[in-house]
Amino acid sequence: MRKIGKQEIEDIAVGAALLGTGGGGDPYIGKLMALQAIEEYGEITLLNVDEVPDDALIVPSAMMGAPTVLLEKVPSGEEMFSAFQNLESYLGKKIYATMPIEAGGLNSMIPLALAAKLGLPVVDVDGMGRAFPELQMVTFYLDGISATPMVLADEKGNNSVLSTINNLWTERIARAATIEMGGSVMTAIYPMTGKNLKDSGIRNILQLEEELGKAIRLAKEINADPVKEALKCAKGFELFRGKVTDINRKTESGFAKGIATFEGINEYKGETLEVRFQNEHLLAQTNQRLLCVTPDLIAVLDAETGLPITTEGIRYGARCVVVGIPCHPKWRTEKGIETVGPKYFGYDVDYIPVEELVKKGVTL
Amino acid sequence: MRKIGKQEIEDIAVGAALLGTGGGGDPYIGKLMALQAIEEYGEITLLNVDEVPDDALIVPSAMMGAPTVLLEKVPSGEEMFSAFQNLESYLGKKIYATMPIEAGGLNSMIPLALAAKLGLPVVDVDGMGRAFPELQMVTFYLDGISATPMVLADEKGNNSVLSTINNLWTERIARAATIEMGGSVMTAIYPMTGKNLKDSGIRNILQLEEELGKAIRLAKEINADPVKEALKCAKGFELFRGKVTDINRKTESGFAKGIATFEGINEYKGETLEVRFQNEHLLAQTNQRLLCVTPDLIAVLDAETGLPITTEGIRYGARCVVVGIPCHPKWRTEKGIETVGPKYFGYDVDYIPVEELVKKGVTL
């Protein structure tokens, strides 16, 4: 158990945006929400997974929908509060702690802000070790834990308690409701026990986020390249350096979908990189080479500052480093690949771990 | 208080389909569900509105969605049961009785079938005095009663408890969820008190349905025209007699929408009638005359048997009588017309009561 204050929030926000691989929400809004909550209610208690009793009720809190929409439809803060109250009353049990469902600029921060407000601890764990666009894309799904009862709540005051026969139906019905509720909503989802968490969660994610943010922040002081410092910390690989020459982005079926194109600089001169995304970056390839593919992480960093850039933050002309990071081993199982691999998203390539792609330089 | 047995079900099914003005679900499936429930659980208790205590919790039960879909996606019966259980546990109060939300082949029967199964009484009242396609289109909405908390449940086992800031949001979010859940679902909606019911409900609707069904059934025995007998009972008007020459029907945004075209016979020879519908018949006009428009009731009856035909039952070549019936006075108020008048459905005509249209023969 330890306390999370303002400096930790700053670092976590950066690291979470990096592991958010372009999605998971805007880090600036997320950070402001968490800082404001600490200002108002004091520091947040962070628990290690092993500190949670086996029978405790743990409920992740998250934004669902297109992050592009959320930029213009800022949460009121009240919707998450009412979602938790609703779920407690539906389940007839007190919630012991909250946690992030994924890494991401916003979705790592919402549980922290909510925890401060409710006086609950946050558990240092998530269900992805990165961000993914659909709500069955969590290790809890791989381990047969139900996403429901889940609560969806919008900033107007509408809310819905959903119970479904499986998590694919949760995704379908919740997505339709989210779109109708304006494109982004707050959710309380995957209510589970401490035991579930110990079996199925990805541990110490907030700690990794904080270390990543710290590495990038402190690089300047030691005259180091912030990108290299981040890669050291995340055990990742530089895939490409380039300038954004095109960004094609649309909000479709409740997702921010598109392609970002980069023209190579330095040793990558002459090559063109395409990064495809659906809320998150999912596939990076040049005309010759496949560089990295989901479920491995693809992050776009500012070449100068090392700061991660979300899909909605990619701007024409920006100089970026595209990096690849191996995903959690749970995603590399058969069911993992089936759930979040390239074929699921409609990309006709096989999954090959990023460390092999980097070694072999696999050609297309 | 009285008991409803099999003969009453047969008659109510016919009268309800007539007042259902083409919508409200298939009368055959509805009747089977109710007869089966009586077979299994015994006769149903029907209460007069005045017999309900002011503070009792009354919950209407209904199908929501496109009736065309329901024909191929028959309810399991369990979904309504689980919807009621869910709502009781959400509200923390026992449900005293159920009731129909609207008249219609299916939606008049569902509360009867459910009541038999749950051992609850049914109240002889509804919120429309006819059928309408959207869920805010009830007298309860005119009187400011909330549609939520409402439960949606599908035959697969998915369900959702929805709470919204107003009934237009209920319609939007529930409709989106309904479409995603397969196009038709069972709902427990507009939970209200006995007092609400006394102030706002349309009374003795099941009694009227039964009388209508009985009038049509007994016409043969007295060698009378069943259509004329029905019109006498419903205080309605014959508008047109014709043969179906075209039926244009599609399922769009969760509704069965379309136009049925009739070529006049007998004294209507030479005229062509178009009936426009969105689940229910909403507008009847020839090239020369406006015959009847929502919220007044437009029913299509078989010229021979007098039996009502639903929009999905209209067949090429069928000889029909199209009849008009004045709606309940609550629909003729300013808010009533705004909620269910022709303009709401996108028809550029003013509402004129059917009895005036019949007298004047208003030309277009």
Radius of gyration of chain A, rounded? 19 Å
Anisotropy-based shape of chain A:
globular
Q: CATH H level of the largest domain in chain A: which superfamily?
A: CV3147-like domain
Order of helices and strands of chain A: EHHEEHHEHEEHEEHEEHEHHEEEEEEEHH
Give the largest interface.
Answer: A-B, 21 and 21 residues
Secondary structure: helix percent of chain A? 25-40%
Please summarize the sheet with the most strands of chain A: 7 strands, antiparallel
Residue-averaged pLDDT of chain A: 92
Whole-number tally of structural domains of chain A: 2
Count of runs of 4 or more consecutive helical residues of chain A = 12
Domain S-Me-THD N-terminal (chains A, B): 7-163
Organism (chains A, B): Gottfriedia luciferensis
Protein name (chains A, B): DUF917 domain-containing protein
Domain S-Me-THD-like C-terminal (chains A, B): 166-354
